[in-house]
Amino acid sequence: MKKTIVAIAAALSVASAFASIRAVSHDDYGKENAWQRKRHNEKMSEVANGGAKVVFVGDSITHFWESNGKEQLNKYFSEGDMKMLDLGISADRTEHVLWRLNEGRELDGYEAKCVLLMIGTNNSGHFPIEKEPPADTILGIREILRTIRAKQPKATIVLTAIFPRGATADDARRLRNDIVNKEIQKFADGKTIFWCDFSDQMLTADGRLSPDIFPDLLHPNALGYEIWYAAVKPYIDYALSDGKLPAPANRYSTRVNDRVYRLDQGISVFPATRIRSEGYGAKDWWLDRLLEKRNQIADSNGEIDLVFFGDSITHNWEGPGKDSLAELLKTYTVLDIGYSGDKTENLLWRGMYGGELDGYKAKCIMLMIGTNNTWHRSDKPEAIVAGIRAILDLIAKKQPQATTLLLPIFPIGSNAQDGKRMNNEKANDVIKNFADGKKVVWVDFNAKFLDEKGDNVALMPDHCHPNEKGYAEVWLPSVLPYFKEVCGK
After folding, report:
1. Angle 357-320-283 (CA atoms, 0-180°, nearest 5)?
2. How far apart are CA 464 and CA 456, in angstroms?
3. First and final CA of the chain: distance in angstroms?
4. pTM confidence score
5. How many Å apart are CA 373 and CA 267, to the nearest integer?
6. CB of 489 within 8 A of CB of 331?
7. Which of 117, 137, 355, 426 could covalently link to 133 via disulfide, CB atoms 3.0 to 4.6 Å apart?
8. Could you give the CA distance from residue 56 to residue 88 in angstroms, rounded to a whole number?
9. Could you give the CA distance from residue 76 to residue 23 in angstroms, rounded to a whole number?
10. Cα torsion 390, 395, 401, 406: sign
11. Residues near 265 by Cβ (< 8 Å), separated by ≥ 6?
12. Residue 441: beta bridge partners?
């Protein structure tokens, strides 16, 4: 589906007016955690003395190179260019690292060759998923990578997978970390940022975390640090060689990839992102838009009147539909979580792991999705139907108080015989039965987009996306009575 220039601009912008979600803020610990500031100050004395060529950044797992891994630290990281600067602080989350690297200036004033980052387990471990979804941790880690690159532009970055935690493969916090790992590995380009995941060496065949390596099911012992050293040494050697050694390959764990995606499910109901593998994601508008929407939710005070959930056709309320949206904003608070190009599986990920249905109570959710399933992948109607059914079930679980307006997939193509339109109409014939007239209301105004010949060109010049008149003269007046009824205003 094509994006308008306005829609692209809207997607690329991050709304700085909104409050920041916790994971991307800069947290200086406060008075209650004075010991963490004390450790930071101690580390700044090492920074002032010239820093190091090899720098580890992280939380207690990194911090404990100086205790559990002291033997390995002294053996491998105590002399010459291999001498380590351990910038790990116990209990740190992404926001603490962001403060330390920015306001705390822990990477300033020296030139590192290799910066190794492993962070995020406290983001999953300290707050429930509905208050801190995996997306927030992903966004926090992306911001840390950007900061490292800005502070140490010549350094090789080694992004290490968040270690597995908990006794079994079904541990809730481990599952959250796996979801994060699945996405942050895409930030590694294999040139300046390398991915290193050796978690399979820490687990038994059935996915249990070995107590011989992790006695408390979170922090490794000396053997764990030995494994860690062996896994990252090729990347450190490469960085210290100034590129004279062959570049090592990104190291992936099939365990994480296999656990997050079930091969027995259809792709339309597989929660999936559209995060691309392109370094640290500086050009990834999809993540930028996710950050914008998460920040808007953080600023919502827990109440939002209208939520628009969909793809570019919904996204474009901020483009060709901006005047219609402005009219709505005079009366209602609106969260537009339409993303250009999204399919059913992308809405499922954003709703399940992206936090876009968490942190507030909506009054009315307007759902329209499926066009890209047909347009981009030629999904059969039953696959689209399955995806929409899963999204409705997720909305009912996450926002049980809300009324959902279920819209049909809009008519695409120039006539009723268009194959894609016919495919979508078959899906529409099924999904309309998902509406009970109470919690889910079927709102069908597709015919209003068509002329007497069945062509949509007057209101959808590209035969897919409504123009300004399509929003103002068809969509807005068709749904406004429902908004008034549900919201009581």
Report:
1. 60
2. 8
3. 34
4. 0.93
5. 10
6. yes
7. 355
8. 7
9. 33
10. negative
11. none
12. 405
